[in-house]
Amino acid sequence: MSARSSQPTPGAALAGLVALVPANAIASLIRKGSGKTSVGTWLLSQASGAGHLLYCGLLSALVVYLWLRLRPAPIARLDFPALLALAALVGWFAVGPDFANFVERTEAVEKVPPGLLGGVFCMVSVVFWVLVARLVARRVPWVMVGVGVALGFANNFLLELDYPGIHLTVGWCGALVATLGFAAEDLRWFRPSRRLVIVMGALAPLAVASLLLRPNEAAWRKLSEAPGAFPAPFISAIVPELSVGRFAEDRNDPWMKRRDGVSATPPSALSPVPPDGIVILLVFDALRADVVDRKKPLVPMPNFERLRKRSVEFSLARSAAPSTLSSITTLFTGKYYSELHAKGSSGEEGGTAGDETPRVPELLAPGVSSFHIFPTRLLDPSRGATRGFESVKVAEKAPSSKVMEKLKSRFAGGIEGPQLIYLHWMDAHSPYDLDGAQGTPKEAYLREVAILDKRLGELLAWLREEKLAERTTLIVTADHGESFGDHGTWEHGKTVYEELLRVPLLIAAPGKKARVVTAPVSTVDIGATILDLFGKPTPGYFMGESLLPLAYGDATQVSHPIAAEAGTKLRAFFATPDIKVIFDRKRKTTEVYDLSVDPGESRNIVDAPEMRVHVGRARRFFSVREVKGAN
Whole-prediction pTM value? Predict the structure, then answer.
């Protein structure tokens, strides 16, 4: 078979992108996604996604036509360098933000601009696939069309619910490969002609309409969570957001206003901590609440169970964030992350060292000493979350055994109270390999949870041996949960669904009776609780309140709304104990779930008219306190 030309044509450029439409449709039927979808919603989402790809295809066809028509013949050899220059530009601006958290977390590249990594990634990807396509398409062009479509199909199952720039690169490469395959086939109706112009002109209104007309909220959410619909996250920047539930006025609700200037709340006088008392805040990293469920625990935890039998258990506790830095920062500042001056591209992992809000240790000083052992760079005081602690570092993601060694060494001579100690145990964090990697990821994770329980037994034994148990109040919780395919995601930080927000919460104090509190509470309440335990007032700007009135008094619920944030991108608000509103600010989507009938958050009821008031209240809650332009 003779070699064929792989010179792209306008029609081939259009066909290369449109060919991804059926691939995305089939993938959307296969992938689990975040919930159930009606046929009508699915059709709307697919029509909108097809329109986006059609628009990109028409734009690509126009660019190819103008480039081939207007460029001088002597610079034809610059076709490939021009494509690389475009890839570098796209990589810097579109893919760079995807590398920002990696740069901030990785010491070896912390001074490298994320845009540079994004540009290199995009250029290398384009070079590889274009060279492969040009080599193969001249001989078997339809094979390369299939490879391009397969690449677009596979894009739907990579890095779900995040990394839009990487998905753009993979989708673009798939379209390029298919384009070069179509071009090599050299079909007559792909060449510039009056017929092609008429077809493109007829399709253009449909493509433009897909940009300007947004489907209903559920369909837009379905589209925006599909990784293969790679134009959607970028088109969302220009598509107007649906006006679902504009601000609701709650003039009499003090939590719906900024709390600057609100008077401090005096201590409750319910603290069981003696004058020389010790409070240990023990945070398990990535411990889901259902793992230690009272009725059906997923792994035997005898030490946790013994502690539970002498604790006040808050059975409906939620984290204020689905990732460590945001969660712990909120815990020690009493403010949600959007209220703080944060640095970094996403505002989630960049840290809040520049924010002047006092941390709990600073509010306790000078009367109470504070000590912390940090097993991750995210909790270094220089990042802002743990400012005010006397801190000791262990190796990155060191197991809890190393943290216990440091604790015993630091207090070998005893503890002179009053003293706050913050322990953070990373054993259950991915990659789940502390006790072997055999079995499924969740099975390996549960084995690591069992390690945490052994370490808890060691901590309790040490307190008894050192004659510290009668002086110590223990608060046990988690910074967030963990996902194992729930809503199509893994690990944490990507969503604000219940598998990442629900966490255990125990308060064990000497001489206090055990009980179960079923009222919803949040880890944002823990900072105020620590202050109350040491007899300190809670600042009026705190978004949480002490749990001692619930644990040891007559209170039946906290007065504040429960909310959560994933950096500045995702927000959750409980308009009632069961009605949960989720805002995805990056994709400009809104979700509403009724947890009383849909605990798995699978049926988005945002388009129900009665939900508008709840969405409006949630919008107001976040709007009135966000630090504008801080992140």
Answer: 0.83
